[in-house]
Amino acid sequence: MAAGGSAAAALGAWLVFEDEAGFAMTPPTKHTWARRGRTPVIRVRGRSRRRLSIAALACYKPEHRSRLIYRRRMDDGNRDGRKSFAWTDYRDLLQAAHAQLGGPIVLVWDNLNTHLAAGMRTYIAARDWLTVYQLPSYAPDLNPVEGIWSVLRRTSQANTAFTDPEHLIHSIRSGLHDIQYRSDLIDGCLAGTGLTPPSGSP
User: Fold this and answer.
1) pLDDT tens-place string over residues 51-100
2) Superfamily name and number for 2-25+49-191
3) Using CB atoms within 10 A of its CB, is residue 128 exposed (0-12), middle (13-18) or buried (19+)?
């Protein structure tokens, strides 16, 4: 993991962590106040099993405000349809991030099979602005994007009775939008992993 940070510093690059998560119509629960003996009940619609997938990048660079860049994908509701990101979706996300960040990227992500697809490997090899490191297996605690998901589930998602998939999409988009304007929170997610930011960060 230190290699990723060292490479980013040496190249003057953004150190970027990626992770993906799925969100369903059933909300995560959170502690709340209630009258003694009156357990709060949130009724949710059970008809829709559609899930929203989010792929997000937490981006860090010395002397720059930390950034959060993401893309969403709603499954089509068909039993045989694709419910997660294809390698081409990750390609497009990285291409957009490169344009937004305006510089080289040192990417750190896990060993998801889509990340290791032949098309993805070919794409990475052909981009001199992109260097990739794999996280160790079963090491979500080293990925600051996991902290982003935790914040999202404890705030805009918690105890919410979603009326339909569009309500779910709007809620997640609003929650992520709030996080994007909180660079201190994005920094805190990196600090929570025990990793240090690239050398020279403020």
Assistant:
1) 789 999 999 998 899 999 999 987 765 655 566 899 999 999 999 999 99
2) Ribonuclease H-like superfamily/Ribonuclease H (3.30.420.10)
3) exposed
